[in-house]
Amino acid sequence: MSFDISAYKTVVFDCDGVVLNSNPVKTEAFYQATLLYGEAAAQAMVEYHVANGGVSRYKKFAFFLEKISPKHASGFKGPDLDELLKTYADNVREGLLTCDMAPGLETLRLKTSGMRWLIVSGGDQDELRDVFARRGIFHWFDGGIFGSPDSKDDILLREVSRNNLQKPALFLGDSKYDYQAATDSGLDFVFLTDWSEVEDFESFALNNSIICMCTITDFLV
Q1: Among 1, 36, 60, 155, which is 20 to 30 Å from 161 by CA?
Q2: By the 8 A CB rule, do 25 and 103 touch?
Q3: Is the same domain home to 126 and 163?
C-alpha cells in the first residue's frame, strides 16, 4: 500500500516499535525489574505493560506498586518506585543502543527534507536523547525529541501551542494510545504493524478506520 506523505508539514514518530525495534527490550526489562516480587507479579506487569503501550514507565511502575504487587506479593517489601525505575533503565539502555533501527528511515528523512520531524514517546526523555545522539540520528528530529515523564497528550498539545508541531501533521505509531493521543490533538495517524505488540490491531484499525502500514519502507514506494 502506498501513502502520500508529501502533504504534511510535520511528521511525529513514536520510538519503540516505530523508529527502533525496542518493544521486546522494554517488555523484558519490565519483567526483570519486577521479578523480585515473584514470577506471577512480573508476568502481570508484562501483561499490563503490553496492554498499555505508549504509556510512560513512571505510570506503569506506580500502577504495579499500587495494584499488582499487593495482589501477588502481599506483605512483601520489595524495591520502591525509584529502585524499579533505575533497574529498568539499566536493563533498557544497552538494548536501545543495539536493537534494529527501522529500515528506510534515513531515506525517508531525505525524501521529507522540507518537513519537521519530532519524536513523541513514552520513553524517558533524557534517555531517548542520549540514545539518539549515540546512534547518530539525533539531528534527523529537528522538531525535538520528547518523552516521559510528560505524557504524549501533554507533549503534543504543548508543541502544537508553541507552533513547533505545525499542521497538517502525521503521527506514526504502533499502539492504541498513539492513535488516541494523535486524534485528540488533530493529527492524522498511521498504524505501523510489523513491530507492534498490539495483538488485536487488525480489528482495532478496522473499527476506527485507521490506515495500517507494515514498516517505514512502505512510505518510500
Answers
A1: 60
A2: no
A3: yes
